[in-house]
Amino acid sequence: MCELLGMSANVPTDIVFSFTGLMRRGGETGPHRDGWGIGFYEGRGLRLFQDPQASADSEVARLVQRYPVKSTAVIGHIRQANVGAVNLANTHPFVRELWGRYWCFAHNGQLAHFEPAAGLYQPVGDTDSEAAFCDLLNRLRAAFTTMPDVAALLPLLVAACDEYRSKGVFNCLLSNGDWLFSYCSTKLACITRRAPFGPATLKDADLTVNFQAETSADDVVSIIATEPLTDNENWQLYQPGQWVLWRQGDVLAQG
Predict the structure, then answer these.
(1) Is 2 a catalytic residue?
(2) Could you give the CA distance from residue 41 to residue 47 in angstroms, rounded to a whole number?
(3) Which end of the chain is flanked by fewer CB atoms within 10 Å, N or C?
(4) Catalytic residue among 2, 104, 184, 190, which?
(5) Distances, alpha carbon 133 to alpha carbons 24, 28, 114, 148, 214, in Å
(6) Domains of the chain (ranges, CATH numbers)
């Protein structure tokens, strides 16, 4: 299975600490050797880095670690291929434009006998993940002519994810830069860091950061990951079928 990484924050924040832990799982402390990617929203723009190489050995990953991009919404992914060849076209996260915004999506799992209806959005690669993303956007575009409020989108998003989940394993992260939607089929965890901040130690690397020295008293940063990335913090585990909508580091809605 693949692993997911998401961040929602109320101020532009770098994700180097969490990214460092995730990258080690891509071929060093974990088996996810079949590519990685990460997307950082900057205003209405999206800065995307991808590499079909194992993240633990990737020079592009090292570049991202040396260049701490700050963002309020981030989606990352490391891949262990089960559907589709190992190449750049099949590397998450996937990105499409809808209603004048970039939508970014990453999936962990596998869908059986998934044959979505044809629509405007078509996959470039041959993964079930990208096919599900395109199908989801086709559903949204058919239901609304312009960007609705996220509260109007939620019932459709949740219903679609429930349907995909019925076909296999469907853990996912989705964002349009304003909010971050997370859905758990089998496994997701999250943690929200706010004042008073303290130290955090990665499970997969010999690295500890004292967030009190890196943040202000008003900062709120939430991290979502397939598996907890630190071993000295209290991560919350999602339940199967649970979804959470994040905005600026806080929970906007959940169910």
Answers:
(1) yes
(2) 6
(3) C
(4) 2
(5) 27, 29, 12, 19, 35
(6) 3-187+198-246 (3.60.20.10)
